[in-house]
């Protein structure tokens, strides 16, 4: 069986020349992959992203989004940038804009795929753990999609890339009956957060981390969660270093749930109508949904593009594992000297599990071939740089 092709452009620029720079090389990959295969004239195309958080600003840079948008428009597509409600919808759009992602910078609308209230969803059959899941309607109804992911670590799944972007981010906040859909994935089914008063230092980190202002302490210094407001996102438990607030989740199961949900989202698209773009830049240890961004663990690697979600995720993790670590980062704090299995060493979770889990749905191959793009050729086809370094 032929290997899956993964296009790659390094973030390095070896010449003072746009065509040899990261953006120029990304543009060339978009030229090479023939977007006509993914987009028919007039198609509305979601560009599924994570738009960051207040404090988590290491998102895919708008210059690259704009380049993608222009390429999609050139083949007749009608793209829009989108994610689902994690924090209240209008607030999320303001955060996205503050992180540089808005209509002015990208050239297209930035919208919530599940509506500003996060309830626009379509229930679809899912794998054996979830049974069924509510998919954001603007993704469910689209004829094709670009999954544009910023690759980084993740406290609950070890790594967040395309599987996470789709499996969590393609799912609506709630369904029309008000039942949590994303939230069902963070928690073991039907379980609740637990709090142990004796362990609580009242540091209030959980209060500050909660995006829905669901946590208060009563006059007896007892933690109270407003279940009406709580989105079951698990952020509060993740920042509790005392082990007082505990999220009922199993790390292995969580990765399987992500793969299940991602497969359910992909099942709404005809085969071959989803393109994956993984930016391996500013690879920080934590998800872009946290209330801060830490320093990157490794130097910027570049961008990968493929129509195979298994291949691109495996290639991304393999490349990260071969990088040098940045000592002044969480990797250095942990005493790591190499990036091999870096996310497992930092978060205690093996991220290859989610790759194997999505592969089990028959959605791609772990056998890949990297095709590196070194430059964007000149109009006459030449690839000679105009201003090589050192001249
Ligand atoms: S983060 Fe943990 S220790 Fe701090 S206030 Fe919340 S429950 Fe208590
Ligand atoms: S799970 Fe925790 S952080 Fe998330 S909304 Fe509920 S109380 Fe807030």
UniProtKB/TrEMBL annotation:
Q: Which UniProt keywords apply?
A: 4Fe-4S, Iron, Iron-sulfur, Metal-binding
**Out of the domains of life, which is the source?**
Bacteria
Q: Which Gene3D superfamilies match?
A: 3.30.70.20
Pfam families this protein is in? Answer: DUF362, Fer4_7
Q: Which PROSITE patterns match?
A: 4FE4S_FER_1, 4FE4S_FER_2
- 4Fe-4S ferredoxin-type domain: from which residue to which, for each copy? 191-220, 221-250
Q: Name one GO molecular function term.
A: metal ion binding
**Protein name, as recorded:** 4Fe-4S binding domain protein
Species lineage, top-down? Answer: Bacteria, Bacillati, Bacillota, Clostridia, Eubacteriales
